[in-house]
């Protein structure tokens, strides 16, 4: 049996989605009655079959979309629009600006925050180093590999001191080796910086390597979180341990139930 | 071919050729054209109707030394540059506004889609009535010839900006003005420049037509009026000069474009 969530998040959640429903005008509901609470500084991975509405959860929390029903609260305030306290790391590399160098891309948020050029450059250089890209600052995005581009996105988010990082399958398009390398690095960076992270993925082992808790989503339409599993594997985590394997098969069970359900839904 | 950062750029991957060979082929093309011209003119036709390459070059040289051709050339070129610059500026500005704001787009779209199909030459008559045969009517016509193509390209550029770019900027707290300035404008630059290159060609065609139909100076006037004096050699000299001027202007424009776009990956 999966462990039910009894963490202190219940006491005073930093981020809370309460009974959130979402649908586009006159279309089938994507989410209905979704509840999600995040403690400050926790790494939450959201796992689910493709098309179940994972990205919609992230878009709502980012403020790109508004819930049809329900309430989203961050640090005591209701979320209506995007804000620099919630920075998004996107799946593809389209959000990197191809007319700016790596450093200039990383400085994007700082520039908007009105930080002066010298301080900006220093902060960006630090961030660049922390994602392992020292010396690549003057390159343009098209001169970087896919994995490097995602590191730039992470640096661009980290440098801004945003409390919440919203990551939408950021490693989904990378090859397997690069992906696991970046997962390990992200885990290390998170331990160092302790941001609150909502991480969307359909990769079970990624969810386990990274998450303090793992939410499994129901198949849509009208999806919600069906199960939250506390992941107490000690960090740094490695993929080869027995505990990892146990966790993996337990989650796989839950996910495949949902996948079966969604396939049945399609057949009907 | 390589850009200033030393990165190899493939142009046409399938039939790449060394630069020296490409140069040789281009020169051969010009020489072959001149030879065909010269031979066909001396063997087939009366020199009054169809002057040879050689006699055209002689006329070109003598008219140039007398200063006539040079004056007309400068006048025409000046009209193109002024109208092209103004038309590009107006087209890009209106295109940016139409591309960014739905209400502006909805308001102007019918007008733009009506006027862009009316060839500039159709406006020579009204322009002459309104502005006379002087500079104002020429400027009006060249602006008209440039404006729409730059405008349409700018709008196309904006519609191609990936949604994640806007979302990224919003997530970092950018307001609409900052998004316009930091995302919309720089992302459309390659499209604006492509529109300008086509607009440059349109400008040349339009100014010549206008000078022929309603003018008393410029290359168009020179070409058209030469028929009255049976100076087909001068007529052809004017035509040759026109082609050379257009070729040189486009070459110069491509050079400037390469400079302007060296930051973007879309070099060509």
- Give the largest interface: A-B, 29 and 23 residues
DSSP helix fraction of chain B: over 70%
Rg of chain A is 19 Å
Question: What's the multimeric state?
Answer: heterodimer
Structural class of chain A: alpha/beta
| Main sheet characteristics of chain A | 6 strands, mixed
Strand content of chain B: under 5%
Overall tally of structural domains of chain A: 2
Give the topology string of chain A: H per helix, E per strand: EEEHEEEHHHHEHEHEEH
**Please, how many domains of chain B?**
1
Q: What is the overall pLDDT average of chain B?
A: 90
Main beta sheet of chain B: strand number and arrangement? none
Instruction: Give the low-confidence spans of chain B.
Output: 1-8
Helical element count of chain B? 10
Describe the fold and architecture.
The complex is a heterodimer of chains A (268) and B (268). Chain A has 268 residues and is an alpha/beta fold. Chain A has two domains: 8-85 and 165-267, Rossmann fold (3-Layer(aba) Sandwich); 93-162, no CATH class. Chain A is built from eight helices and ten strands. Chain A has a six-stranded mixed β-sheet, with helices on both faces. Chain A has a four-stranded antiparallel β-sheet with strand order 2-1-4-5, with helices on one face. The two termini of chain A are 30 Å apart. Chain B is mainly alpha-helical and 268 residues long. In chain B, 75% of the residues lie in helices and 0% in strands. Chain B has helices at 19-43, 53-66, 68-100, 102-115, 124-131, 135-159, 163-171, 176-213, 219-225, 232-260. In chain B, helix 2 (53-66) crosses helix 10 (232-260) and helix 6 (135-159) packs antiparallel against helix 8. The radius of gyration of chain B is 23 Å and the shape is globular. At the A-B interface, strand 6 and helix 3 of A face helix 7 and helix 8 of B.
């Amino acid at each position: 049996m999966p462990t039910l969530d009894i963490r202190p998040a219940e006491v005073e959640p930093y981020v809370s989605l309460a009974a959130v429903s979402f649908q586009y005008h006159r279309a089938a509901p994507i989410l209905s009655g979704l509840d999600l609470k995040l403690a400050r500084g926790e790494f939450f991975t959201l796992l689910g079959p493709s098309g179940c509405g994972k990205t919609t959860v992230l878009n709502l929390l980012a403020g790109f979309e508004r819930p049809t029903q329900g309430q989203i609260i961050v640090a005591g305030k209701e979320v209506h629009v995007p804000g620099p306290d919630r920075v998004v790391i996107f799946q593809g590399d389209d959000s990197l600006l191809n007319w700016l160098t790596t450093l200039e891309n990383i400085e994007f948020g700082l520039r908007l925050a009105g930080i002066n050029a010298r301080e900006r450059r220093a902060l960006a250089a630090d961030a660049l180093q922390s994602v392992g890209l020292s010396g690549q600052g003057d390159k343009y995005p098209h001169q970087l590999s896919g994995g490097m581009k995602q590191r730039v996105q992470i640096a661009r988010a980290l440098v801004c001191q945003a409390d919440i990082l919203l990551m939408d399958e950021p490693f989904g398009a990378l090859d397997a080796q690069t992906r696991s390398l970046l997962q390990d690095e992200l885990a290390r960076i998170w331990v160092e910086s302790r941001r609150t992270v909502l991480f969307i993925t359909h990769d079970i082992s990624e969810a386990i390597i990274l998450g303090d808790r793992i939410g499994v989503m129901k198949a849509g339409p009208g999806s919600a979180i069906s199960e939250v599993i506390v992941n107490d594997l000690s960090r740094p985590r490695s993929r080869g341990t027995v505990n990892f394997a146990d966790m993996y098969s337990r989650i796989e069970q839950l996910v495949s139930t949902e996948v079966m359900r969604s396939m049945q839904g399609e057949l009907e | 071919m390589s850009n200033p950062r030393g990165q190899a750029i493939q142009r046409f991957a399938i039939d790449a050729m060394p630069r020296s060979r490409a140069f040789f082929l281009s020169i051969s093309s010009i020489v072959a054209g001149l030879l065909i011209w010269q031979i066909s003119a001396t063997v087939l036709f009366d020199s009054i109707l169809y002057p040879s390459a050689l006699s055209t070059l002689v006329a070109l040289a003598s008219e140039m030394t007398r200063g006539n051709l040079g004056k007309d050339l400068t006048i025409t070129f000046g009209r193109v540059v002024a109208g092209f610059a103004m038309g590009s500026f107006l087209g890009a500005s209106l295109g940016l506004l139409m591309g960014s704001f739905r209400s502006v787009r909805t308001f102007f779209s019918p007008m733009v889609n009506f006027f862009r199909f009316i060839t500039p030459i159709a406006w020579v008559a009204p322009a002459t009535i309104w502005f006379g045969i002087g500079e104002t009517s020429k400027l009006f016509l060249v602006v008209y010839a440039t404006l729409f193509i730059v405008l349409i390209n700018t709008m196309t550029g904006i519609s191609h900006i990936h949604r994640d770019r806007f979302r990224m900027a919003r997530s970092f707290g950018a307001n609409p003005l900052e998004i316009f300035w930091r995302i919309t404008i720089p992302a459309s630059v390659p499209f604006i420049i492509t529109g300008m290159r086509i607009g440059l060609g349109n400008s040349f065609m339009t100014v010549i037509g206008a000078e022929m139909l309603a003018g008393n100076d410029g290359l168009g006037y020179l070409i058209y009026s030469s028929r009255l004096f049976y100076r087909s050699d001068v007529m052809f000299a004017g035509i040759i000069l026109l082609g050379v001027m257009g070729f040189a202007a486009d070459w110069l424009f491509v050079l400037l474009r390469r400079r302007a776009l060296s930051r973007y990956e879309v070099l060509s």
